[in-house]
Amino acid sequence: MCKLSIRVLLVDDEKLERVLIRNGFDWESNGFEIVGEAGTGEEALEYMMHKKPQLVLTDISMPHMDGLELSEQILKISPDCHIIIVTGYREFDYARRALKIGVEDFLLKPVNINEISELANKIKVKIKQEEKQVQAVEELKASVLADQDIVMESFFQRLVENRIPKDEARRKLMLYNCENLMVECICLNIQLREDVDEQKLSKEHKEIINLIRQQDYQNFVCFTHYMQNIILYFTNHKYESVIELAAVLHDKLTNTAKILATIGISECNQGFQGISKAFEESKKALSASIFLGRNRSVTYKEYEEVMNQNQNKEEIDWENFLFALQNSLTDKVNEYIQEYVELIQCSRVTDIEYYRLMIMNILTRAGTTLNKYGMSLAQLVGEERLYKEVRLINTLNEMAEYLSQTLRIIMNYHESKKLKQKNKVVVEATAFIDKNLFDPELSLKLVASKIYSNESYLSRVFKKEKEISLIEYILKNRIEESIRLLNTTDLKVYEIAEKIGFRDSHYFSICFKKQTGVTVKEFKRSKN
User: 4-aspartylphosphate modification sites (predicted)?
Assistant: First the structure.
């Protein structure tokens, strides 16, 4: 049968009616495939789960579940399914209810084969159009994913954070004609006011990038860093000329575009490691702007001049500090805060402005953990509030207390993101399992692949959320279905096992006994 055939299910409690509909119209030649015939609504729903028909022809008058009730259930399972009601009833109420449910059309008994042909082919055209629309959407998605600018931006975002191996970086930079970055580079980090609404911020970002591209720059790379700052790298430029370019750019932003911005400028750095080093230097330069003044250019040299007040060159373990922060290890973070404050105290610097700069130093580093969510500390806390609260700090005790409170906000944000991610994974996994519960291939590996998750991670979060393993969840629901079938049908054990996804009826019996405490035979005997 052609793979593109439209799958059809026939539902009628009278076998003769099904035979007439099946044989009266040449379904196969017209692009259809009869995937099953059902004599009851319950049987039809099983076909829906396994065969996923696109077109259902159902009688309206059937025992236990009539055609209208069945139609409601079908459209809950598969909203895109097309339904034709076959009925001898001509009452308006049935038609009104059917239209309300979403039934496609009616066929009145005795069925006219010409009417079936006309209606089936009309629906076939409709289904093909729907498939084309879905295909068009998928192609559009693929086009967006393949968009060169998006791919390049993602690459540079990871490159400046030193999250790409050197060999891969070299290949990509050659592909983008930016290999000079690995020779030497200077980084400009353009920061806008982040206390404005997201729409205005996005508009200003576009204006700045357009303004930069209009300049007669040579050998440069420009991109937005996770919807935060705009990063501009220059290669093959003397440091003094970049300082001049930054001054001219800032003037145009302020006076032409009417955009308030602060520009952090790195030193000139060499080699592959120099790319991420220049980025870090530009961020540190920005952190000094609270004391040296915002809405201006700040160089890394200016940042160092302030930092040189510190005679104690020791630092805390920044890598482990950031790890503890991202994983909400509160006690460990508090230990690092205490260690940081003690280092500052040992420096014997009495200038309160130095203390405030040290606060901004640790908060700037902490804020980098938010970048992967498209968030910054200024957005999370509020830029004006952040600077105002830092300016009010006058003692080391106040510093420690403020750092503890602010870093707790960051840890809470990480926790909320992880919780949402876990919940989303479990919800998607549960939905896939429920939809494919009777598929013999259903397994942890299959579920993980279908929801794009890691098997180990999925297994762990599923059990934590449901208090039962994923495999136990599948078996529990299958056994519950087998109990329903034992109570409502006369199917043999091997038939029930096959229906609920067991290839081996003996294994089904073992699982049944484990789940219920009795064998299948004992269960049947107690039922009788």
Answer: 59
Angle at which helix 318-326 crosses helix 330-346, to 10 degrees, equals 150
Can you tell me the distance from the alpha carbon of 39 to that of 57, in angstroms, rounded to the nearest whole number? 12
CATH of 436-527, picked from 1.20.120.1810, 1.20.1440.60, 3.30.70.120, 1.10.10.60, is 1.10.10.60
Give the model confidence (pLDDT) of 188-226 as tens digits: 999 887 556 777 878 888 899 889 988 889 899 999 887
DSSP codes, 277-346? HHHHHHHHHHHTHHHH-SSSEEEHHHHHHHHTT--------HHHHHHHHHTT-HHHHHHHHHHHHHHHHH
Residue 347: exposure state from Cβ atoms within 10 A (0-12, 13-18, ≥19): middle
* In CATH, 6-145 is 3.40.50.2300: yes
Q: Could you say which architecture CATH assigns to the domain 148-299?
A: 2-Layer Sandwich (3.30)
Q: What is the pLDDT of residues 113-163, one digit of tens each?
A: 888 888 888 999 988 888 888 887 777 665 554 456 777 888 999 999 998
- SS3 for 183? coil
The answer to whether 231 and 275 are in contact (CB under 8 A) is no
pTM recorded for the entire structure: 0.42
CA distance 285 to 296: 11
Pairwise CA distance, residues 335 & 403, whole Å: 12
Q: How far apart are CA 286 and CA 306, in angstroms?
A: 13
How far is Cα 255 from Cα 295, in angstroms, rounded to an integer? Answer: 12
Q: Is 258 exposed, middle or buried (0-12, 13-18, 19+ CB in 10 A)?
A: exposed
Separation of alpha carbons 197 and 491, rounded Å:
63
